[in-house]
Write a structure and sequence with these properties.
By secondary structure, this protein is of the alpha/beta class. The protein has eight helices and seven strands; from the N terminus they run αβαβαβαβαβαβααβ. α2 links the parallel β1 and β2. It binds nicotinamide-adenine-dinucleotide (NAD).
Length: 279
């Protein structure tokens, strides 16, 4: 049906983000990796955050510098306040400032609620929700301090929260994850309301089913993929590049008047496809 990401799309040569400085968390795998590369291709200098897997992070850095922009890898756990503060401080030192924060890092620790430990609950909330708060806060401080630089962007800064369709779709067996993403939705909207007067744009991207390591079991056998496709009206599982290109658009001045929105990149998963024939 649909070809690979490389087959179906021409390279995005327009350098929509020329001269901007971006940080992507969890950027050595899946959606974060594709996003960091897409931001570099669009002309941004990029900090590639990772928590484990230095070699993969360096490979992403090499891809990005190949576009003639700057990049470096930075190890930090997004749920650790000191490490996030130090990561953004180093970026301001090395790149001069930050224009785009993509709070992407996330994980799952699945269990039925009757089996779920407090540690499983807390780990997911710490990384997926508190991690996004810390990254958004540190970026916002620098955006407010610096203000708008018209030659760079119409806004003083962009915060993009990587959410999920589970921001609004309940998910049995994943109460920690769904709660974290529901929280990300309200975090994003509240920050958008609070920071818009500073000309800071806060938005979220809500991926559906994207082929990455986080959900390998959902697509890596023909039977699993067939079951997954029943939830996707558009008839294909998403690629990380589908999400990455949405982040580039969201970060660019093309969407300067978009504030406090969640853009679902989900092949129609949030359209309740079961109701196409039932209900
Ligand atoms: P992934 O497992 O490939 O990538 C997750 C990244 O986050 C990895 O690089 C991982 O090392 C990093 N990470 C985990 N804990 C971290 C921490 N404490 N500090 C810093 N980095 C940390 O999975 P992915 O699918 O690329 O997920 C990226 C984001 O997209 C997540 O927020 C996930 O919830 C979201 N998402 C993914 C899908 C999907 O179908 N793949 C759907 C909806 C939302």
């Amino acid at each position: 049906m649909a070809g690979s990401a490389e087959q179906r799309r021409a390279p995005l040569d327009v350098r929509l983000l020329e001269g901007q400085k971006a940080l992507v968390t969890g950027a050595n795998s899946g959606i974060g990796k594709a996003t960091a590369i897409a931001l570099g291709r669009a002309g941004a200098d990029v900090v590639v955050n990772y928590v484990a897997g230095a070699q993969e992070a360096e490979e992403v850095v090499a891809r990005i510098t190949g576009f003639g922009v700057r990049a470096y890898a930075h190890e930090a756990d997004v749920s650790d306040e000191d490490q996030v503060v130090a990561m953004v401080a180093r970026m301001v030192e090395e790149f001069g400032t930050i224009d785009i924060m993509v709070a992407n890092a996330g994980l799952q620790r699945d269990a039925a609620v009757t089996e779920m430990t407090l540690a499983q609950w807390q780990k997911v909330i710490d990384v997926n929700l508190t991690g996004q708060f810390l990254c958004a806060r540190e970026a916002a401080k620098e955006f407010v301090r610096r203000g708008v630089v018209p030659e760079v962007s119409r806004s003083a800064g962009k915060i993009i929260c990587m959410s999920s369709v589970h921001q609004i779709v309940p998910w049995a067996g994943h109460v920690n994850y769904a709660s974290s993403k529901g929280g990300v939705g309200m975090l994003m909207q509240t920050l958008a309301q609070e920071l818009a007067p500073h000309r800071i744009r806060v938005n979220a991207i809500g991926p559906g089913a994207i082929r990455t390591p986080i959900n390998r079991s959902a697509w890596d056998t023909p039977q699993a993929e067939a079951e997954l496709l029943e939830l996707i009206p558009y008839g294909r599982v998403g690629d990380p590049e589908d999400v990455a290109d949405a982040v580039v658009a969201m970060a660019s001045d093309l969407l300067d008047y978009v504030i406090g929105c969640t853009l679902y990149v989900d092949g129609g998963m949030t359209l309740f496809p079961g109701f196409a024939t039932g209900g």
